[in-house]
Amino acid sequence: MTKEWLGGTTIFAEMSALAVRTGAINLGQGFPDTDGPEEVREAAVRALREGKGNQYPPGPGVPELRTAIAEHQLKRYGLVHDPDTEVLVTAGATEAIAAALLALVESGDEVIALEPYYDSYAACIGMAGGTRVPVTLRPRNGAYHLDLDELRDAVTDRTRLILLNTPHNPTGTVLTREELAAVAELAVERDLLVVTDEVYEHLVFEGEHIPLASFPGMRERTLTISSAGKTFSFTGWKVGWVTGTPELVTAVRSAKQFLTYVASGPFQYAIAEALRLPESYLEGLRADLRAKRDLLSAGLAAAGFEVYRPAGTYFVTTDIRPLGESDGFAFCRALPERCGVVAVPNAVFYDHQKQGAPFVRFAFCKRTGVLEEAVSRLRGL
Ligand SMILES: Cc1ncc(COP(=O)(O)O)c(C=O)c1O
């Protein structure tokens, strides 16, 4: 196996270091610059003081959180999960992805992933000994789309699973009901498992998020991954989870116990409370991010970028060709010096790097004043 991830640093580390060195505004890495709700922070403090989670929590996660996750899946999506056997708490979605792939993929298995893909997918498929088979999302009419024929053609006798991500980082695409139904039909027809990364499930501005597990025939073949990081703006707490059948969840737990074993004890109690916040919290989060999306998208368009306004997530992908540029890497490396803003080149999310070369991603999960300043700096381009 070629360990292509060995010795490298991620583009986020490189660009964040560049931001620090140049004093640029960092719209590269996707973390909010304000913390989540005060009452959730207080819940974590209370848990620490009351000695909840200060020692190893139970391997599958504390029962309070597993119950809250099962309630969330039922209330929002009508998905019934037994909190004892069908819910597993992980160290963020990152560990859930790693453990799922390590548990389910055998050496030589093919894993289909939507390209551009979140960077840990490639590394984890590699660590599991699998071969990744990218299916490229293509820009059309201002948004990125899944070509269902291409997806169908990518399935071979060696395909073990499809690794899906919706809402999708970095393109901001939210797969439609029709697209998801087609993925589901294909998975059933070819008897495939699907691991679906839905960490941006609550950050949808247009359309709706529909979990793949809710489609006919999918509950028994889908592992659904989500996380508190994006939904509650506590990316440092690393509380994530997996839901699925007892067999699939047990498989993931078997791998997980040798990765972190357990993590984030007191924060698990706090996120159990966060999941029960009133709907107004999520509405407020979405309204805030929608306004920020519009602010940054308009600013980028005014600066001369072609903008793919995202339907979900907190990223906006742009095409730099209208600026007379074509190499996203060179563009992003020069941008801090040119105008004091950091972005990331989408090419790092591609196997077919040429496909991604002219695209650049900006994050808008930042304070309005920071985005306004970034927009004003970008105007100087
Ligand atoms: C698509 C996607 N999956 C997973 C993660 C990681 O989630 P966590 O911080 O919960 O590990 C991210 C974070 O950026 C992401 O964009």
From TrEMBL:
GO terms for molecular function: kynurenine-oxoglutarate transaminase activity; pyridoxal phosphate binding; succinyldiaminopimelate transaminase activity. It is found in: Cytoplasm. The keyword rRNA-binding does not apply. Signal peptide: none annotated. It catalyses: N-succinyl-(2S,6S)-2,6-diaminopimelate + 2-oxoglutarate = (S)-2-succinylamino-6-oxoheptanedioate + L-glutamate. It is an enzyme of class 2 (transferase). Its cofactor is pyridoxal 5'-phosphate. Its main location: cytoplasm. Pathway: Amino-acid biosynthesis; L-lysine biosynthesis via DAP pathway; LL-2,6-diaminopimelate from (S)-tetrahydrodipicolinate (succinylase route): step 2/3. Keywords: Amino-acid biosynthesis, Aminotransferase, Cytoplasm, Pyridoxal phosphate, Transferase. It holds the Pfam family Aminotran_1_2. Residues 24-378 form the Aminotransferase class I/classII large domain. GO terms for cellular component: cytoplasm. GO terms for biological process: amino acid biosynthetic process. Its EC number is 2.6.1.17. The keyword Lipid biosynthesis does not apply. Involved in the lysine biosynthetic pathways. It catalyzes the transfer of an amino group from L-glutamate to N-succinyl-2-l-amino-6-oxoheptanedioate (N-succinyl-2-l-amino-6-ketopimelate) in a PLP-dependent reaction, yielding as products N-succinyl-l-2,6-diaminoheptanedioate (N-succinyl-diaminopimelate) and 2-oxoglutarate. Belongs to the class-III pyridoxal-phosphate-dependent aminotransferase family. Homodimer. This is Probable N-succinyldiaminopimelate aminotransferase DapC. It comes from Streptomyces scopuliridis RB72.
